[in-house]
Amino acid sequence: MSEQATEQLVLRKTLVVAATRERAFEVFTAGVGGWWPMATHSTGKELVEAVVIEPREGGRFYERLQDGTENDWGVVTAWEPPERFASTWHPGYDEAEEQNLEVRFTPEGEGTRVDLVHTGWERRGDLAERMLRDYDTGWDYVFGERYAAAFGG
Amino acid sequence: MLTALADPTRRQVFELLRRGPRPVGELAGELPVSRPAVSQHLKVLKDAGLVREQRDGTRRLYAPNGDGLAALRDYVDGLWDEALAAFKTAAEEPTEGDDDE
After folding, report:
1. Which CATH superfamily is domain A3-150 in?
2. Considering A126, B10, B35, B100, which has the largest number of Cβ atoms within 10 A of its Cβ?
């Protein structure tokens, strides 16, 4: 894969929230179960009752189903509150094909700028295909129904 | 555009094309759907910019559009947009004591 193609697979998202850096970090991590759209953005969909990030390096990032089953999404690789948090990312597929997430919190004006970087897609040449297949389990609904509905498709 | 990949058969068509350009007849031979159905799926994929048409003599081949990867990227990007919008709403809610679970 060319460098350009690799760079194409680096996702960067930035947003500013009207909250202190401490609060933004806490809501993103300890409070993840309160906002994560788990019915759609998960592998267990409507069976998911919680999404948890264990607050330490080496902690687990996982979803818990109503029957108690826990599916790992990744492992916390950096825990630097309230500045930075990183984890591996392999929801619904083998950890050998993991990607990486990094989220930084920077004070900006009265609020906090949140920079999210999603990398590591280049580790497998066929990852795009796998994404199509594997994200299927959880993302189909968002994509096929919610997304389409939102755009009148 | 990305709703083009919401259909499982269309995803199969797209995945087959990622292994190499091929004509509609060949695709139909590998899928449990009729040739007209495959043509229809190809049209949707083409309109979405995920697949392009190319000529090989008199044959018409279909191949993944290089920009298709960008489309997948946009797809994941869209998922994050939804998740982060929800995060923003939560982070900006008035604090009420302890947020832990």
Report:
1. START domain (3.30.530.20)
2. B10
